[in-house]
Amino acid sequence: MMKRSIFSLLLLVVISACAYAQNNDTEKTIKELSKAKWQWMADKNVDKLAQLFHDKAKFVHMSGTWKKDEELEIIKTGSIWYKNADVKDVAVEIVDGTAVVWSRLKLTAVVRGADAITEFTVTEVYTKQKKDWKLLALTFSSVRDTHVIKH
């Protein structure tokens, strides 16, 4: 009986450690994907973004909400040019095949020809499709510079 209890406890510890390591790897992957997305947006790399964005993705900005094709066109034409996203903090939560990223950042952009520097908390939702992560939602929330993301 004692051997069985010790074995069960050790098995539980090993399974927990594996799950923790796997979750950390997924968080790292998602953080890297989010960072790459900001660079692709700055570079106006709509080919990479088209692969990343889910076909049913929605984008919520201060001036409206639109879908994948509209967001790609806005980026391609430079209607909004995401010149630089200076990310200050990132929090990631993984639940089953969904990842949510909260990024605290200062966005330097050109919007309809005018320079804009704005503090945001951006919420990104990714969904796992086969072996790839797809961006399903991206929402900009204008915040005060004292805003803090809870980890």
Task: Describe the 3D structure.
The protein has 151 residues and is of the alpha+beta class. Helix content is 38%, strand content 46%. The chain is built from three helices and six strands, in the order ααββαββββ. It is globular.
The side-by-side strand order for the widest beta sheet comes to: 2-1-6-5-4-3
* Largest beta-sheet characterization: 6 strands, mixed
* Basic shape: globular
Count of individual beta strands: 6
Strand content: over 45%
The helix-and-strand class reads: alpha+beta
Mean pLDDT score: 87
Low-pLDDT parts are: 16-21
- Order of helices and strands, N to C? HHEEHEEEE
Instruction: Work out the helix count.
Output: 3
State the end-to-end distance. 41 Å
Radius of gyration: 19 Å
Give the % helix.
25-40%
Q: How does the SSE layout of this entry go?
A:
Layout: H1 2-42, H2 46-52, E1 53-61, E2 64-67, H3 68-77, E3 80-95, E4 98-111, E5 114-129, E6 132-142
Parallel strand pairs: 1-6
Antiparallel strand pairs: 1-2, 3-4, 4-5, 5-6
Offer a quick outline of the entry.
The protein is 38% helix and 46% strand. It is α+β, with helices and mostly antiparallel strands and 151 residues long.
Tags for this entry?
151 residues, alpha+beta, 3 helices, 46% strand, globular
